[in-house]
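Re: beginner question about structure tokens

> Can someone show what the tokenized structure looks like for a real chain? I only ever see the sequence side.

Sure, here's an example I had lying around. Input first:
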Amino acid sequence: MKSILKSIIILLFSIAFLITSLSAKEGKIIGASNHEIPRWFKDSFLDISEDIEEAKDSNKHFIIFLDFEGCPYCEKMLKENFIEDNQTSKFIKENFDVIELNVKGSKEITWIDGDVLAEKELTEKLKIQYSPTVLIFGENKEIVARVNGYRNPVDFQNILEYVQTKSYNKIDLTTYLSKIDKKDIYSFKDNKMFKSLDDLSKINTPIAIIIEDNSCVQCEHFHNKILTNEEVQEEFSKYTVIRLDANSTKKIVLPDGEKISPKAFVDKINLDYRPAVLLYDNSKLISTIDALLFPFHFKEVLRYVSGKHYIQYPNSYLDYLKVRQDELIKQGIDINVAE
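And the corresponding structure tokens:
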């Protein structure tokens, strides 16, 4: 009897140890990939004023591509816009000098104002929130276009042409893009979560305003890859979701009570990405998704607002994201940052 009891106790301890071991197993980040920097990017001494002058002497403009290792959006943008042999990559080679900087790096840079600082210090100085971020400079060494996050070749080409034609001397980027005669390539898709409402000022839940138009290159991907993701759908369930046509002139009432048309609103806030998602809580605009995000990052921005984590992390969603990723990994949950 004692032998049986002893065996049972040993078995229970073994099971307990196994459960503890399994629960202690940490998760990992998957889907990240180390991308390559095109060989034709400029070798620079990292004196940015000097780089701009050299580009100007060659009748070119100057670009800084800011990224970091493992960034899936950086890989996608580099591959489609800089590495693949297409119209956009050819246009860049002909009209721009390009260098790459690491947003977390330690190489010393002499900035246009004379400051000497490390790459990661420059990231803080410029308040970089996206990876990649593309900075494009004018002849007078000012940043004339700042691209936050991934852009597809069609949309990026339009931004590059704005700079190459020096249209920045006449109008801002958003106005320029709004005047381009774009092809209708997208038909609006319905979704059961979308509500048809004109007055958003009386809604008590967090609000997500999705802004699309008929020339939206990324909208198909958004509907087919993002809105079909179960975790994204779960986070969206905490919101009242409204979809607007960026070209509509029909007036609506925004969560803060302002009466305005979607077209005028988009122009007012200089929104140049489609589909954009504006996230409100307590009638205030808390966060704007104006770049491509894959499901994990997308659903975490939704959680950041609906869970009121912006109160604890008011300076940046990235502050929240770092803590959140560590939390999930310690719980043994794998994080897939890929598409």
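Each token stands for a local structural state, so reading them left to right follows the chain. The longest strand covers residues 61-67.
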